[in-house]
Give the backbone structure.
Amino acid sequence: MHKTDVAIIGGGPAGATIGTFIKKYNPSLDVTIIEREKFPRDHVGESHLPAISAILDEMGVWDKVEAANFPIKIGATFKWGAKKDFWDTDFLHHQEFRNVPRPQKFEDQRLKTAFQVDRSVYDKVLLDHAESLGCQVFEQTKVASIERDGDAVLGLKLQSTDADVLDQIGADCRVEARYYVDCSGDVGILRRAMDIEIEAPTALRNIAIYKYWQDADWAVTLGNGGTRIQIMSLDWGWMWFIPITPTRTSVGLVLPASYYKESGKTVEQIYADAIAEEPLISKLLANATPEEEITATKDWNFLSKRLVGQNWFLAGDCCGFADPILSAGMTLAHTSARKVAFTLLELFRGQLDPEWVKSEYEDGHRTQIKHHMQFADFWYTSNGQFTDLKDYCAEIAETAGLTLDPATAFQWLATGGFTIDEPGVAAALTYRVSGLKLVAVQLGGSPPEWEITKTNFWRLNLSDATEGKFVRYMDGRVVPIPCLKRGSKVLPLVDVFKHVVNAFKNNMDSILILEDCVNRMIHEDGVEVKEAELLAIEALESLMLEGWIRCKVVPSRPFIKVT
């Protein structure tokens, strides 16, 4: 029998991230990662968001990933819905992206960019890194069964084709751990064994078909390795075009499962039709060579009803998966893994209430996945094929306690939500409030309205609010921070929000409140002027939309202007 402190099922990005963080912050703990395949192997999910870059740096694996020479993602180019023009969403404006030699450090312009990765290479880099820190890695080893007693996992029975692994785990092929983590993707080995139900809080029922190509042209080439992914809308679905190495490109098709079934076509036929109908992608692939294998997925939208048990956790895709339109899958995998690792580290320390630590992960990450699903639903409402979602925006708003018609339900998406890992920034999903408003322009065609520009006399509305604790994950710790709660709304009393609350103590004029908050960030936190102004504007807008501010108009006083 093999005994360990933490047994991780699955050696993909989530499993490797958990193992790495545990060994980084507490090298004395034993970590075993069980992977059924032998890396390298292909896997879909190649497009990163910038939040992952910071996690890779904290893991100590940034330099290894950068050395693999993956394309640098500065953003995405869209053609969506009825619109036939192209529009860009950039993490770093293309004119600011400088042509500098690679490999680069995680600094300067690379703080704002992401990677587009070949998963066969990327996943092996991460797993090898976890092993180099002391994790035991069992490849070509699958979990044959899970022993349980109620909500507790007692052990894992393994099967392996690796003789070295068989020597380590003993004749009974059994592993016992203090904690178990399921990182097995949508297979959900432990989740299924523990009879955890899943739900699908979305109207989307899509499938994906994809293939890899060699020597495709890039739509955009910026400096040394910089580019954008391409998201091209069809009348009956959409396509992705993601360069993942200097010579290899992932090209995929997403469409409603019902459309595929009604077409009567094979996977190969409908994939070829999509390429033929999309002029840009067809042009980029004109001189490219397709690899032999083509892959189709089933409908992937789901959310696990539980993420935590007596001595087990879910992380990565087995927690749930949202539509790939937002390139959020890998970000959710890495961020959930980081939270699980820090939660486990805290449980081993024994200094915080274990139930609070576990519930903060479960509640926060389930909300994050659900919000990504809802944002994807909103996104699809502007594509003519997805007519069943036309009224779904109103349902999205209702989950936040708002009664809005479909035309105005986007307001929910810009209310903050605090579902990212950094509670001191007004953001929903991976978008800050200002970014959400710009996306709204592209999807809806209307200029972004800022509620803080419509009134000028404010008071903080704390009626029915109670004091509570919110969570911040940092330096291997789960750190409780003070907050105010009203129903599902949370106001963290940290960073910009702390300064906003303090600014209300001395002012009621909107401009004076804004100026007070900005000055506090500049002088107390050392934030640069432009960033302080944007953070304050976004925070005030978020609090206004969530009802934390009572407001009225005083005609004699000036108004805030947002450009």
Summary: Residues 384-390, 400-420 have pLDDT under 50 and may be disordered. Residues 391-552 form one domain.
